[in-house]
Description:
The complex is a heterodimer.
Chain A: E1 3-7, H1 14-25, E2 30-33, E3 44-47, H2 67-77, E4 81-85, H3 87-94, E5 101-103, E6 111-119, E7 136-143, E8 147-149, H4 152-160, E9 164-168, E10 187-191, E11 197-200, H5 216-229
Chain B: H1 6-11, H2 13-18, H3 24-29, H4 34-44, H5 50-60, H6 62-65, H7 70-73, E1 83-85, E2 92-95, E3 100-108, H8 110-115, H9 117-133, E4 138-148, H10 154-174, E5 178-185, E6 194-204, E7 219-224, H11 234-237, H12 258-272, E8 277-282, H13 287-298, E9 302-306, H14 319-324, E10 330-335, H15 340-349, E11 353-361, E12 365-370, E13 373-379, H16 381-384, H17 414-422, H18 431-434, E14 445-447, E15 455-458, E16 471-477, H19 480-485, H20 487-504, E17 508-517, H21 524-543, E18 548-554, E19 558-559, E20 562-563, E21 567-576, E22 592-596, H22 611-616, H23 629-644, E23 650-653, H24 658-668, E24 673-676, H25 690-697, E25 704-708, H26 711-719, E26 725-732, E27 736-739, E28 743-746, H27 747-762
Parallel strand pairs in B: 4-5, 9-12, 17-18, 24-27
Antiparallel strand pairs in B: 1-2, 2-3, 3-6, 4-6, 7-10, 7-11, 8-10, 9-11, 12-13, 14-15, 15-16, 16-21, 17-21, 19-20, 22-25, 22-26, 23-25, 24-26, 27-28
Helix pairs in contact in B: 9-10, 9-12, 10-12, 12-15, 20-21, 20-23, 24-27
Amino acid sequence: xxxxxxxxxxxxxxxxxxxxxxxxxxxxxxxxxxxxxxxxxxxxxxxxxxxxxxxxxxxxxxxxxxxxxxxxxxxxxxxxxxxxxxxxxxxxxxxxxxxxxxxxxxxxxxxxxxxxxxxxxxxxxxxxxxxxxxxxxxxxxxxxxxxxxxxxxxxxxxxxxxxxxxxxxxxxxxxxxxxxxxxxxxxxxxxxxxxxxxxxxxxxxxxxxxxxxxxxxxxxxxxxxxxxxx
Amino acid sequence: xxxxxxxxxxxxxxxxxxxxxxxxxxxxxxxxxxxxxxxxxxxxxxxxxxxxxxxxxxxxxxxxxxxxxxxxxxxxxxxxxxxxxxxxxxxxxxxxxxxxxxxxxxxxxxxxxxxxxxxxxxxxxxxxxxxxxxxxxxxxxxxxxxxxxxxxxxxxxxxxxxxxxxxxxxxxxxxxxxxxxxxxxxxxxxxxxxxxxxxxxxxxxxxxxxxxxxxxxxxxxxxxxxxxxxxxxxxxxxxxxxxxxxxxxxxxxxxxxxxxxxxxxxxxxxxxxxxxxxxxxxxxxxxxxxxxxxxxxxxxxxxxxxxxxxxxxxxxxxxxxxxxxxxxxxxxxxxxxxxxxxxxxxxxxxxxxxxxxxxxxxxxxxxxxxxxxxxxxxxxxxxxxxxxxxxxxxxxxxxxxxxxxxxxxxxxxxxxxxxxxxxxxxxxxxxxxxxxxxxxxxxxxxxxxxxxxxxxxxxxxxxxxxxxxxxxxxxxxxxxxxxxxxxxxxxxxxxxxxxxxxxxxxxxxxxxxxxxxxxxxxxxxxxxxxxxxxxxxxxxxxxxxxxxxxxxxxxxxxxxxxxxxxxxxxxxxxxxxxxxxxxxxxxxxxxxxxxxxxxxxxxxxxxxxxxxxxxxxxxxxxxxxxxxxxxxxxxxxxxxxxxxxxxxxxxxxxxxxxxxxxxxxxxxxxxxxxxxxxxxxxxxxxxxxxxxxxxxxxxxxxxxxxxxxxxxxxxxxxxxxxxxxxxxxxxxxxxxxxxxxxxxxxxxxxxxxxxxxxxxxxxxxx
Lengths: 230, 766
């Protein structure tokens, strides 16, 4: 698989996803510096987590106006796949590639912890088609602005179009705090209309070995990549 | 140059003022004594102008000169085979094998964090990270040791909330995981909180960068953020006591910008991977003053700087302001001549300022030009060599009171005491705090936030076909109430507890960075606390072969004359060869718990200075538990031997709250229970029996609880070791702690208060 990872000056999960991509696909991704625009054709572009430009304005707002975004849009229009993780999800929304908004966590605190995700719609997206609907994944989050917010109309549309990728779910019966940020309908990740762009707050690249947050992130990424090439 | 020149007055009135001769009252306003002012005039053979005086006052401040503690710091053990660089550089460096070096340091940002908690704590993190990457190391982990006042005070909540947000704000954004630390509350910190931040980095052991200037004529480079008017005289502020009007000092607090910090980190490491950098120093406390003076002094050279070339945020800044600004995210470097263009292209790529602002000289003087006039011309030597060193009078007060167990006044049952222990915010879970820190960014965190006694981060790229790789273990420890009662003993205890924590995570303890936080050293008893704890730390560090390689001293932690508990924080680093062998503190079902370092016939525990004693008797006037260094060393060695033989499944050090508290902490995670084996003489007694209480809650040192599923093999190995041990029992699924017929305690309900205490205090848990 030919893949690329965008690098903004404040990206800080770029190394983590590069390692994951290399280990899973056997091929190192190309690094896509935010000021550059010329890249070879790719199967997948990952926009990693971090604080692209410090997030002093809205998270991802400046990154969404970087030269590299044009290349990402071209890639999407060619049918290429894009995965935005955490700040990458925020950038996809700020760039108008995914709908809705990501506002501050309900408790107004940065939150870093494990979450349990339930896979929602597996029909339209190569990211999910290799996985079972309602399957559970234990993947950590670490963010301050991950509270997905959208109008009722948009929320219904996402649901009806099968564009909700993941929801946070209860791990045990009395766990009232399972949604780490207060997002609408417990949404943790959404898809573009064609299913080839996925934005998610949790960090699959931080769950790729048993000593280190479990292997559910590895499982998700491996299945996704198989389907994207397939 | 003529300082009364009318031209200068016309160009920059304030600069003209800065170049005027100073007076004694200027000196006292800057925190210098009359003697110190006279010394300066003598040494430089003139009356300094205000800029020159400002430079002296910063260099002579306690924060930069260590004038009260230097005499004693020199007595600390700093050498060992594995030490590459001891104290005196930006950070300490140790050899961890495979051509790798661990670079680490702890530093305080106490005063600024009290005045402006978010920015104070954030810049504390930024500053310590710069200290580490200045040495050529990529930071891989952050820890912090925090002390706050009474949890019931509204101000405490404001400070906790701000400090935690500040630490997270910087660490999360720059992308270095915050993996551990400690937070305690005590009313002595009501007016003076402690914010100590520790950073650990990794470097190639042959690519360490130092600060000594080299080569007259070589260019001096300024990189990073622009210089503004923030933090002027921060070092001086950090060297005085507080009064009720301390909030007026808010403008002396620096403002952090973690995004620029990230750019500086990446660009400096990129430049350091070339051969362009000869020496480098970060601009921390006392900014451009201390960085330029220290570089020149260490290289026995001089420095010329044209301050008009310094990138500034505001117009018409004076030489005084530029030299004393503590604007963050700035570095001073000396480059190999001819490499300026190559270096500039890297900083251009990262959109950071880059300016050649001067050159190294042979003069031995610091010469500064501003607005075309000479703003400063002083010899370097007196700034460093002649900085005062005081031999302050001291008295080490060691409390010798021991508490007789049968004279104890017992109010509570064992169950009630345990309930109170886990409602104590010093012992309860700090989840509310650490969930606000990104602990897993960089993808190498193996253990953070109390999963094991020390935090463990994998060394990126050391994995091979046999192992997931090598890891660094880190912890911070100090029990201030022990130090207060007996500074020597308390100093030793802090080192030993840190070493036990490293060992209990499966790693070998290697070296120390320390942060000595005390009150006003001009008071005899406080100077005694400083001297005593340095003696204790030194004794233990040398016995355990864990030398002190870096550190920081923070004095004058007093408000309105009331000092903090003496708090010499020990940050310790160790190494684990295969991270998959790290030991958690959480025990699994059907494992046998045994306590190492405690005999079968031991029944009377040490309750002087314990958490128990605070709860039951409200007296703290007693000697802390004694420390036996031979026993401490032995327990660490034997624990690691057992672990090497693959016999252990978990380990946890016994500290605050004693044996029973430690057992509960091990059972919490997996919701387990235990039928606790009691010494024979305690089998049939009352839940209010004083001896039973002392056994359950005594804080005797040199004990670690280990878990095993191969108890016979463990017993066999311990037979010849001459180390006492006591089998506590086998874990079960009951989720109850059973003390024979005496009582049955619900672990579930203790865990509930363990988790709820801090969120309830912070009042933000919905």
